[in-house]
Amino acid sequence: MYRQWGRRYVYGTEFWVYSILVADDDKEIAGAVEIYLTAEGYRVHKAYDGEEALAVASSEEIHLIIMDVMMPKLDGIRATMKIRESRNIPIIMLSAKSEDYDKVTGLNIGADDYVTKPFNPLELTARVRSLIRRYTDLGSMEKRTGIYKTGGLCVDDESKTVTLDGEQVACTPIEFGILRLLARNAGKVFSMEQIYESVWNEPSYNPENTVAVHIRRIREKIEIDPKNPRYLKVVWGIGYKIEKIGQ
């Protein structure tokens, strides 16, 4: 058995099993989500507080986390921050709150997506499927392997890594998706709508806050001076691009 994004080999045959951690103190919600995810073919682990979520994430091979914000012992925000110290697996935040502040907070601390309760389980499973498809080694029509370089910035689509001047940059799956899109098309400007639809793989409805938060986080990681970026540039009134810089 090889531990690489759920890849399994049995008698020489390759197949895929993805493990999802559902962390929610509401056992009915966690159970309902488990039913839908299991029907999609995922293996589901459950946790009912933040501390238990951290324990499962560290002891099991987890490929995506669905994390409730409000949980006992350790809330979802702090649990996500702790996970982000060492891992960049996709995280979807759940919350009963719908204010933009809560959504931006979740994205700022490293979440890749945000779903507000009450939610449609089919929508949640679709988001899980989208993130899993985009950030694993499953070959899709959209996925193209390659290494995209500009200046000292290198985005390696095959190893799913980003390096800056030879030093690896820790990126979440969504951050990597944005960088891959822009670096693969260096010099081309993408609107926020285009970035959202390409990376999240769903129609965009007022994506400004979501995309802007991830852009800001990327700049903090790859730019010496995020306010005067060398690589990730804004084209006012249009969108964003990765600057073409000679090698």
Short précis:
This protein has 247 residues and is an alpha/beta fold. 36% of the residues lie in helices and 22% in strands.
Derived from helix and strand composition plus strand pairing, the structural class reads: alpha/beta
CATH topology (level 3) name of the largest domain: Rossmann fold
Low-confidence stretches: 1-5, 7-16, 137-144
Number of domains: 2
CATH class category of the largest domain: Alpha Beta
Give, in order, the helices and strands.
EEEHEHEHEHEHEEEEHHHEE
Annotation keywords:
247 residues, single chain, Rossmann fold, 36% helix, disordered N terminus, 22% strand, 13 strands, 4-stranded antiparallel β-sheet, 2 domains, 5-stranded parallel β-sheet, alpha/beta, Arc Repressor Mutant, subunit A, globular
Fold and architecture overview:
By secondary structure, this protein is α/β, with parallel strands linked by helices. The protein has 2 domains: 7-134, Response regulator (Rossmann fold, 3-Layer(aba) Sandwich); 147-242, Arc Repressor Mutant, subunit A (Orthogonal Bundle), CATH 1.10.10. 36% of the residues lie in helices and 22% in strands. The protein is built from 8 helices and 13 strands. The chain has helices at 27-39, 50-59, 76-84, 100-108, 121-134, 173-184, 192-199, 208-222; strands at 7-10, 13-16, 19-23, 43-47, 64-68, 91-95, 113-116, 147-150, 153-156, 161-164, 167-169, 232-235, 239-242. The strands form 4 sheets. The protein has a 5-stranded parallel sheet, with helices on both faces. Strands 8-9-10-11 form a 4-stranded antiparallel sheet, with helices on one face. Strands 1-2 form a two-stranded antiparallel sheet. Helix 6 (173-184) crosses helix 8 (208-222). The radius of gyration is 18 Å and the shape is globular. The chain starts with 6 loop residues before the first strand and ends in a 5-residue tail after the last strand. Mean pLDDT is 84; it is low at 1-5, 7-16 and 137-144.
